[in-house]
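User: quick one, sequence for these tokens?
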């Protein structure tokens, strides 16, 4: 079964590298949207709250605030609809999954920035 999964992953591998990012980083995902016969690129900017899976099924979840409502979106790493990913800020967090951000509002929901 494991060999079968590896064979499928090798067949569908897109062979492109996204920018390296971690949970806590603020990123902008340039996502291609097709409406009818037209295509446009929409930018989704938010904080990465988790990276999950491995291989072709690896995904990352981005959370942004739209007004007073938190909106989360899950993107597959191997999606052909993703044009590019830009890292806006490198965050300093001590967990791999920062779901505690969902309960925080205002200044408490800020993430410290990593200094280089």
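Assistant:
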């Amino acid at each position: 079964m494991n060999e079968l999964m590896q064979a499928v992953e090798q067949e569908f591998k897109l062979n492109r590298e996204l920018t390296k990012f971690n949970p806590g980083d603020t990123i902008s995902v340039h996502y291609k949207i097709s409406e009818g016969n037209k295509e446009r690129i929409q930018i989704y900017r938010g904080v990465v709250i988790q990276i999950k899976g491995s291989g072709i099924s690896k995904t990352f979840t981005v959370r942004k605030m739209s007004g007073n409502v938190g909106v989360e979106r899950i993107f597959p790493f191997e999606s052909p609809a993703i044009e590019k990913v830009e890292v806006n800020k490198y965050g300093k967090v001590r967990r791999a999954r920062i779901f505690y951000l969902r309960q925080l509002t205002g200044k408490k929901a800020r993430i410290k920035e990593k200094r280089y």
